[in-house]
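Entry for the shared binder. Reason: the reviewer on the internal report wants the predicted structure included alongside the sequence.
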Amino acid sequence: MTIKIAFTGHRPNKIPGGWDGGPERDELVSYLICALRDQARKHGPSELITGGALGWDQVALEAGLKLGDMYTPTKIVVAEPFRHFWIKWRPEQIEFYHYLKYSTTLTHTITISDDGYSAWKMQRRNQYMVDNCDELWAFWDGGLKGGTANCIKYAQDKNVKIRNIYDEYRSI
C-alpha cells in the first residue's frame, strides 16, 4: 500500500544551515532520507507531496529525489500555490528549485492558481496537501503563527496523522 506523505515546515531562517545550506542542511536531508527509508520498509513505497518553497519544502523534495535514486522510485507531487511563485527568489535559488523539480520524471507539478501572489493561495496549497495525504511530516518549532502553524491546525482539524521531524531532529 502506498502511503501519501505531505510536508509542511519553516523557511530557511529556521532550518539548519539557514539560507546558505551547507553541511547542517545536508545532515537534515540525510536524516529525512533515513526516516523515509524506514517508513518505506514498514509500509511500502510513499508518494510525497511538497509545496516546493524555500526551506523544509525543498529539504523534503531533495530527500525524496535522493531516496528514489537509492531505492524504490518515489512519486513526488510539487503543489505550487500559483504559477511562477518563485519569481522573487535569488537566481541561484530558482536554479536549485528547477534542478530539483526537473531532475526526474517521477516529479509531477500541480498549480493551485494561475494568477499571481495572494496570501490565501499559500493556505489553499496547504489545504490541498493535507486533503491528499495520509500523514503530514512537519518541521515545526511549535510557533502559533504563520503558514506552518496554519497547516498543522488544518491537519489537526482533519484528523491527519502529524509527525514533527523538528522535535526528532533536535533531540539527536
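Summary line for the report: The mean pLDDT is 91.
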